[in-house]
Structure formats: structure tokens, C-alpha cells
Amino acid sequence: MAFIFCCGRGSDRKDRGKKQPTWRVFSLKELHAATNNFNYDNKLGEGGFGSVYWGQLWDGSQIAAKRLKVWSNKADMEFSVEVEILARVRHKNLLSLRGYCAEGQERLIVYDYMPNLSLLSHLHGQHSAECQLDWNRRMNIVIGSAEGIAYLHHHSTPHIIHRDIKASNVLLDSNFVAQVADFGFAKLIPDGATHVTTRVKGTLGYLAPEYAMLGKASESCDVYSFGILLLELASGRKPIEKLSATLKRTISDWALPLACEKKFEELADPKLNGSYVEDELKRVILVGLLCAHSRPEKRPTMLEVVELLKGESKEKLAKLEDDELFKNPQPADHKNGAAMEEISDSISEEKSSKEELKEEAGPGVAEQL
Question: What keywords would UniProt list here (predicted)?
């Protein structure tokens, strides 16, 4: 198998002249030594691709090695695409490629280890009781994540759709700086194209309706997923809430009526104990709901999302609050619960149910995927 990497072409011109992260080819022997022969005790988690192992290189640096579970032509192609995309991206809020290994039927992708695991672990998993995410950290995470995704959409060449924005794919370094990760489902968008039609992959609860129903993947689909993530981070709630054996409610369906009634304090994560900046909380929730609009043409771009989250334009913030979406407490076209239920059985590669449970159940499960 031949890999063609374009490490310079995908960089934003503004990044030229800056120190760029480096990657290299690892030998299988080197990764065996680093992970203690892929010892079970070194295992961080597992997902559809395979297992992820913690390791330590000869120079003392810590890594996460993502190892292909079963080799096949299809898996080999997905591996190649992910490595190719990782080799292109250059941003402080995108998980950098440390290297890869392709020997025989072994396929591994190597990253820097993220000691604070993922956003999911702090919202719903093993670290949720520790309340390490104060409001300041949450704002830094949402702005950093937004800037990373905006880079993919607007500054990489060609543009990249992530297709799996969710809490477990936002990793946190030692300083809680967000690193958007897992480009296994990512798609390169040809110049001039508005979308690509593809098989639906992703995680239920974060999928834009037009993508879930029609397979039309676009930058706007990532915006939708990011909107759900914003609501999740502000409220501490999961994307889909089970109300009864037969009834489910999406986080946007729960949040929108409260936002229309300006009851933002009821939307705040109880774990914050009221310690948050009111204007920022309001901003995050309103932006999240607009991003998660059921109509893609109504969603902002990620560049606009970054600007709104930073509060850089008072005029745009005023327009945001006056958006028609917030004039009616229960607009019919914004309710996605039924649509999500309808398409839930059609997503064959869906990772949510069993794997999200794994992520919550034990230390580090799927955190480095």
C-alpha cells in the first residue's frame, strides 16, 4: 500500500513560517516496546476501528496508539484516508498526527496522549463527579473546538468535513485545551462542491436530519453536531434523553422552549452550582440552538460560530437573540425526536449505544479514539 502525504499543501497560508508539528513512520517493534506488547493493562479503550493503547517512547514521551482490529481492504482504505487527513491539518485545536505504522496487516495511528481524556468523561463519565470543568474551562473548550472545526471547513485545502463531532471526540490535554480528534469518518470536499452524498456514519443524537435521512454530508452537518455539543456542554445533559420506554427527547427540543422563555438558569449544568457568566451561558445556548436548526440554510458557518461565541460583534449578538427561531417556544420544524427515532435502525456503523456505555463505564474506554 502506498501513502501519499501532502503535509504542506493543506496548511493555511497564515501558518507558513510557524513551527509545524512533525510525524514519522513507526516500526511495529518500536510500538510493541512502547505499549508493553499491547498489554491489556495499557489499553485505553476500543471502538469500531479497533483498540487504543497507552505507550511511552524511548524519550519518555507518552503516546496513544490506535490499532486496527481486523485487516480488510475497506479498513485499510479508511486507515489511509485518516492518516492522509491527519497529515494535512495544522491547528492547535486539532489532534496532531504523531506517526503511523503499516507493516504486513498491522495498521496503527499514533497520537500524543491526552491526560485529561475526553469531554465526555468529564460531562457523563468517570470524571463527572470531580467537577473539573468550571465555566472558564468550558468556554475555552467550546471556542477552541469551534476554531479547530472552522479551520477544517475554511482554511484547509481541500476543505474537510469531520462527520463525527461529539463529546468523546473532543480530547483534553494537560491544560484542558480542546483537541478535536478521530478523523476516521472525515471527507475531503472537492473545490466547488456544496456536499458529498455518502453512506451515513456518525453518532445518533448528533446527526443533522438531512444527513441522517438522505446521506448528504456538508459542512453544515458538522455545524449541527457542534450545536448539539454546545447544548450538552452548557447543560450537562446527553444529546438524547429517554423519557419512557417509547418516548425520547432531543436536547434541542428540551432547551428551545426554555431559551424562548429566557429561562437560561434552568439550562445551566447543575454541577456548576450557579458559577457561570450569564451572558456567556446565554450566548452558548442561543448559538447551540441556531447551529442545531433543522433547516441547514438557517445554520451559521463555523467562522460565524467562532465570532458569536467570542462575543466580538454586539450587532450580530443582538440579531442572534432576535432570530425567528426564538420567537416561538415550540416551532414544529425544530422537533427532531421523531426523525431521530425513524432513522436509528438504519445506521449500520452506529457507535453510540454500546460504545457510549463503554465510554461511561470504565477508565478511558474509547477516550483516545
Answer: ATP-binding, Kinase, Nucleotide-binding, Serine/threonine-protein kinase, Transferase
